[in-house]
Amino acid sequence: xxxxxxxxxxxxxxxxxxxxxxxxxxxxxxxxxxxxxxxxxxxxxxxxxxxxxxxxxxxxxxxxxxxxxxxxxxxxxxxxxxxxxxxxxxxxxxxxxxxxxxxxxxxxxxxxxxxxxxxxxxxxxxxxxxxxxxxxxxxxxxxxxxxxxxxxxxxxxxxxxxxxxxxxxxxxxxxxxxxxxxxxxxxxxxxxxxxxxxxxxxxxxxxxxxxxxxxxxxxxxx
Length: 222
Fold this sequence. Notes:
There is one protein chain. It is built from eight helices and five strands, in the order αββαβαααβαβαα. By secondary structure, the chain is an alpha/beta fold. The strands form two sheets. It has a three-stranded parallel sheet with strand order 3-4-5, with helices on both faces. It has a two-stranded antiparallel ribbon with strand order 1-2. Helix 2 packs across helix 5 (137-144). It starts with 12 loop residues before the first helix and ends in a 6-residue tail after the last helix. InterPro entries: AB_hydrolase_fold, DUF829_TMEM53, FSH-like_dom. Keywords: Membrane, Transmembrane, Transmembrane helix. The chain crosses the membrane at residues 112-133.
């Protein structure tokens, strides 16, 4: 397998744009490139890239910047690839999930102390979104994955669980349905009783079998 692995993507707008331009240069020659911790791209064997390890907002920025750096005659779509969503995306802001996200690495005592403040903050943010006082960045970021004008994709797989404390399975399934409506080839793989991004620890054989079959296309969409 050959991967396009993006690590250390800058949050500064100018840096991100420069990094995206470098990615465009590499992918433009139909090669898969590796961009590691701010270093220049290193050529690898020709192949299709998988983007992994990026939050939704970074992927959104990548798609937008990739389109923005297109010059005359260049395609604005991010090149054809496959996508594997592991415990993602979270399409709707939920108070309980937000609190779980911010307390995941806290001790039980720390969680008890922090919980009231986090619930209050999350409830306040829910009100802000309901009053439309700010843009719903989370929803906007998720929608970018299903924009055919920005994303050229061979197929995608959603790996998720019914016991994720951070991402609700209904959100993942909703996003998958929207992807199908947009014309993407979708596969769903739902694990039972595995945690957030813990599916490979639950069943490594199944997990890596899913990754392999997504890569080579040897599975039916569902």
